[in-house]
């Protein structure tokens, strides 16, 4: 049975378990999920999942290798993997949208700044929530 990992948050969709919260029965192949199915943890769409081709040796700690923190951070000179999800839009719990194509001029963030490249201390300009309160949309 196949397992697919959300490349944004590390959630694992396991075919043998399905997704009971969305009414997806056990045994449902990932490719048979509805087109509008989203990650139950972070809301990422199906395009943000990758098939797990390596046998898993444990629980959630293994999935952390796939998290957004693994995206490149050029300003720190680090060379890390990228999975192509960095240009997605993000929504704060208050409803504010961070659109990488626009940046955030009020905060001095230039256009085409990926969410993963925002300064660590950047917060929602509307409500002051930290980046952890944003979800991929």
UniProtKB/TrEMBL annotation:
Domain Rubredoxin-like, first and last residues per copy: 1-52, 94-137
CDD domains per the UniProt record, alphabetical: rubredoxin (cd00730)
Cofactor: Fe(3+)
Keyword Transport: yes
Alphabetical list of SUPFAM superfamilies matching this protein: Rubredoxin-like
Cross-referenced InterPro entries: Rubredoxin-like_dom, Rubredoxin_dom, Rubredoxin_ET, Rubredoxin_Fe_BS
Keywords, sorted A to Z: Electron transport, Iron, Metal-binding, Transport
Family membership noted in the UniProt record: Belongs to the rubredoxin family.
Reported function: Rubredoxin is a small nonheme, iron protein lacking acid-labile sulfide. Its single Fe, chelated to 4 Cys, functions as an electron acceptor and may also stabilize the conformation of the molecule.
PANTHER family cross-referenced by the UniProt entry: RUBREDOXIN (PTHR47627), RUBREDOXIN-1-RELATED (PTHR47627:SF1)
Protein's name in the database: Rubredoxin
Organism: Pseudodesulfovibrio karagichevae
């Amino acid at each position: 049975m196949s397992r697919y990992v959300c490349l944004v948050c590390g959630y694992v969709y396991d075919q043998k378990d399905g997704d009971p919260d969305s009414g997806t029965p056990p045994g449902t192949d990932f490719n048979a999920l509805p087109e509008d199915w989203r990650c139950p943890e972070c809301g990422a769409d199906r395009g943000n999942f990758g098939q797990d081709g390596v046998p898993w040796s444990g629980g959630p700690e293994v999935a952390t290798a796939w998290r957004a923190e693994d995206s490149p951070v050029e300003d720190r000179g680090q060379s890390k993997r990228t999975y192509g999800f960095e240009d997605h839009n993000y929504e704060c719990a208050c409803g504010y949208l961070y659109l990488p194509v626009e940046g955030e001029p009020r905060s001095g963030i230039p256009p085409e700044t990926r969410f993963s490249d925002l300064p660590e201390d950047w917060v929602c300009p509307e409500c002051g929530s930290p980046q952890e309160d944003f979800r991929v949309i």
